Request: fold
Amino acid sequence: MKDAMIQINNLNVYYSNKIALQDVNISIPSGKITGIIGPNGAGKSTLMKSMLGLIDYQGTVSFGRNKLEQVQKDIAYVEQRQDLDLTFPINVFDTVLLGTYPKLGLVKRPGKKEKQLAKEALETVDMQEYSDHQISELSGGQLQRVFIARAIAQQPEWFFLDEPFVGIDVVSEEVIIDVLKKLRDQGKSMVIVHHDLSKVTKYFDHLVMLNEEVIADGPVDQVFTKQYLGNIYGTGFVEALTGGVISD
Amino acid sequence: MINNFVDGLMNYQFLQNALITSLLVGFVSGILGAFIILRGMSLMGDAISHSVLPGVAVSYMFGLNYVFGASFFGILTAILIGYITEKSTLKNDTVIGIVFSSFFALGIILISFAESATNLYHILFGNVLAVRDSDIVLTAIVTVISLIFILIFFKELKLTSFDPVMAKAAGLPVKFFHYALMFLLTLVAVVSLQTVGTILVISMLVTPAATAYLLTDNLKIMIVLSALIGMLSSIIGLFFSYSYNLASGATIVLTAAVFFLLAFLFAPKKGLIVRNRLSRN
Reply:
């Protein structure tokens, strides 16, 4: 599976002449849950968006031997919830069904197979009872589960999730991380932007620690250390931010 | 009075033409309008419908059908607004304000040079009672094209309207659908000139769709309702225009506004009264 990993070389991103990401050179393994962590304004979402070709950047991003364009249908992206229009007239089931559209191709309508995929995906996140509800009626956690279901219905190889655990209830967080780990065990790959340090060791296999440039990247047990965290957050705060679960 | 209107419809071809055209315009702006308001492009629709004016003038000067000139300027507006927004740090609504008022001003000057077959007042406010057969054909063609486009690409329009970022990440041609809608919007703006006039086209695109949005939670039903409300506003507006000798654009637009007001107050889930009662409990 090594040839399927994401390779990022000499990546730079500028926002109106101010540098947002500098000289990023990393690889992200497939079949793992990779966390992108760092403080506010570190460029976490920016890194994710440039990998997905959603913003302009300098440098190269490749998916195994492929360019982004060749694997896009196999990429499910769940953006930050606040960026979505929750007043749109659409119910939970149809929202999940949207996930099947990219692989369906242009013009073709979702049929039995797609509806079955959507139904199963909803069951995976335990939201089937809400099938007919409008998305505007859901809580933050329920909504996030629905968007995870939409990503699952797409049957992608890669999941890109931007801050999926922000502002959601404990049950939803557990359901989601559980589902993601199962998918990982089936060989799927995840990249997750995350800023709460207390659960890093529980959630992630691999880490990219970011603060406008890459501070460290690698397996969690090797890079989630006081030294690197201190480089980002200042040594005094590490204990408080991580709740003590940390190796030296 | 209603008898008088029905008599008129039986006897006068100009009134029949007016009715058919305004029904078509009500229908097509209704179905397109649903996507326009959901994509937050109402202001863009307003801009394009104003910006076709110089195109109309240029077409008259060269003796072309006004569709060509108007489409050209409509699309130019959409592209220019997109380009300036991308290449500056200005907000989109500011750029829209600058571009469309400039084109509109240019149109007013060009029209005063071109003044011959038509006059500015009719272009601005519509003159549905002077519709020619060729206008009906044109309106019908635009309606059919728009309907087919929406039927074929309903799925893509739904996804790119709701979540353009996810759609782009998954490789859908989001830009294509944006510009295709802009193009159809331009065509609708052009054929609506006769019925409601340049200034009021935006109302036909936005008001029935917004009314429908308040009445339902389902996109398909919203589109159907929007088309029905658009057509109903057209008939009723035309009736008042004919009966009281008022500008058709104004009567149609006001009728649509009355429907909107009713929905705003009384809509079963999203109406003001129900919402007030809910928030009090």
